Amino acid sequence: MIKRIAIALLVALPLVTAAQTFPTKTVRIVSPYPAGAGPDTVARLLAEKLAKGWGQQVIVEPRPGGNGFIAVEAVKKSSDPHDIVMLDNGHIAINPSLFKRLPYDVEKDFQPAALIYRTDFLIAVSTASPYKTVGELIAAAKASPGRISYATPFVGSPSHLGSAMLEMRTGTQMLHVPFKETSQMVASVGNGEVTWTLTTLATAGALVRAGKVKFLAVAARSRLPAAAEIPTVLESGGPADYEVNGWVAFLSPRGAPAESVAAINAGVNRALGEP
After folding, report:
1. CA separation for the pair 228, 105 (Å, rounded)
2. Which phi and psi (to 5°) does residue 112 adopt?
3. CATH code of the domain occupying 122-243
4. What are the tens digits of pLDDT across the range 173-207?
5. How far apart are alpha carbons 28 and 40 in whole angstroms?
6. Orientation of helix 182-190 relative to helix 201-209, angle to 10°
7. Helix crossing, 134-143 with 158-170: angle to 10°?
8. Residue ranges of the domains in the chain?
9. Using CA atoms, how far apart are residues 212 and 229, in angstroms rounded to an integer?
């Protein structure tokens, strides 16, 4: 199932002639992320470009919490093609394997409209943290099992599974502290309430610029061009081949006409290609 969803998102949808029939009114993007979070910021920037191209208002409606279920429910039962839900690989590809019962079925309730972006995750700690490298963080976790804590936005998120994978790869036992929102997650690290978190440049950017949070390393094979000063986890004393990344996509209700979905795909790709 995951493979089919990925292919549908990565391969351009058929260019069905929409005959300028979409959109005919305001487009609503329902987001499971709080206002100000990385994906929310991207959605709002994208919404501005879409609105200009379509000549219709495009609004972003945050519905955070509940493992994304609240946002999903807001669009799941909709028959309006102007309703879009914004979800990540945790909601789409991970949750179906993690939960025995979900209030939604990705394949039956939705159809892929557009892939928005991919991103790598970084290990972040408070600027007041005594840990300067991932190696030091791991050493502390080994020395005191259960004392070092990590924050995540929800169970089953890329951040959660990536953090658990670091525990497994290093033979450590740390305390998982799930939050309702990504903003709360990063703030808890900046305040020193939780030791570390896996987050993104966009989500933690404001607190990094405010001097509250710092990045120890990026969970990728190579450094990020946009932040080349940040070492990889391996360079920072962590395990080799430790990678955590995610992707975010727009999904339309299953009942949305193919022409509308094609128009969303074309509009998003056009907007993403603009400077």
Report:
1. 40
2. -65, 135
3. 3.40.190.10
4. 999 999 988 889 999 999 999 999 999 998 999 99
5. 13
6. 40
7. 70
8. 2-119+246-272, 122-243
9. 18
